[in-house]
Design brief:
Chains A, B: Its main location: membrane. Chains A, B: It holds the Pfam family VIT1. Chains A, B: This is Iron transporter. Two copies of one chain form a homodimer. The first copy, chain A, is an all-alpha fold and 229 residues long. Chain A has two domains: 145 residues, no CATH class; 57 residues, no CATH class. The first copy, chain A, is elongated and about 75 Å long.
């Protein structure tokens, strides 16, 4: 089905967007913040890599658990719907009618639809799951795939703003290069993200850049303030 | 409607969960990682607060943009459906029939439903939005509320693991207290989160604790490795 396909590809894209936008932004802002407080790139590299490791695990496993929870929730609701259809079929039929009453169908037509749908239990339950409860069947292995996609995107995103600090010992100088590289990457990333999701690419890309710049500037200012420099 | 209400409250809870679980985990793991590399709590406080500032802005504004994108997407699809219903009504009726064919209704009944639904354009379009495209109307001000909830939850979550470093100058000692406090908070947080979302509280709480511990241990190990200690 076209609809299903659309949903799946946008799930993966959403995972990449989640991972990479945070990966580009948070380690970038952390490194910028520390550049406002310490002069040595080595401490910034240590903090930055610790952050990337922590962030990718937290986000990746977080994504895994969220996917698992969704799958568990679907399974338990599915079981309950099968139970209810067997136990109180008239009540479940009334719920089907209610859905169609909401779309302005006549009582007579509501009855016909409910009766006909009740002939096939699987399709009836599927209808209740999707249209009464608003639940889509989660894809198998969605949780694992989601965890890997988010975690990996976070690592890729995080290495970019950190890279200048590997080559430039003085953190203030490295910060300039980090800002330039990261803001360009955020723009390119925001541009393609918007292309794929069908939004206005340039204005959306600028929004992504502004978030990154704001986060970095705030972290820089706060770190300077703490250190009283 | 009950269904709508359920969705809304779980959106806010999801935002709190997103913000607080990352807030508890990432600054905790970053501080733990840096404790493996530097002895002074002051640099860890600077890095930790820079991370909280950066993370809360990135996540909060990220949540805001996600909400905005969802609302824009809904508005543009809604416009397109109204256009199509006016321009190619027969094709749109065929799509309604297709939905019901999927649930095993007879052709005759499919026709009746499509004809009756077509009498009220608003309800027809609403049906197409929800059941063909799977789109729910986003709540007004959802984006702003989501941004504030996620950002604030991240700050609250992040201050907890950082607090021992404010009182204990030697970072190795502060780390013990940070681990104890944070793992307890992760358990309590995981427990209530699972209660609310209807999952098994204890096993789910343990999963949340394991993610935090894993992220912190990995960050600690990597930071030690980089510094060759």
């Amino acid at each position: 089905m076209h609809h299903e396909h659309h949903l799946r590809s946008s799930d993966t894209i959403r995972d990449i967007v989640i991972g990479m936008s945070d990966g580009l932004t948070v380690p970038f802002a952390l490194a910028a913040g520390l550049s406002g407080a310490v002069n040595s790139s080595s401490i910034i590299i240590t903090a930055g890599i610790a952050e990337i490791v922590a962030g990718s695990i937290a986000m990746g496993l977080g994504g895994f658990l969220a996917g698992k929870t969704e799958a568990d929730h679907y399974a338990s609701e599915l079981k309950r719907e099968y139970d209810e259809v067997a136990r109180v079929p008239e009540q479940e039929k009334a719920e089907v009618k209610e859905v169609f009453a909401g779309f302005g169908l006549s009582t007579q037509l509501q009855n016909q639809v409910a009766d006909e749908m009740a002939k096939d239990t699987d399709k009836w339950v599927d209808f209740m799951m999707r249209y009464e409860l608003g639940l889509e069947k989660p894809e198998a292995n969605r949780a694992t795939q989601s965890a890997l996609t988010i975690g990996f995107s976070y690592i890729i995103g995080g290495i970019i703003p950190l890279s200048p600090y590997f080559f430039i010992a003085e953190s203030g100088t490295a910060l300039y290069y980090s800002c330039a590289i990261t803001l360009i990457c955020l723009f390119v990333f925001g541009y393609f993200k918007s292309k794929v999701t069908g939004q206005a690419p340039v204005s959306d890309a600028l929004k992504v850049v502004v978030i990154g710049a704001l986060a970095a500037a705030a972290a820089f200012a706060v770190a300077k303030l703490i250190n009283g420099k």
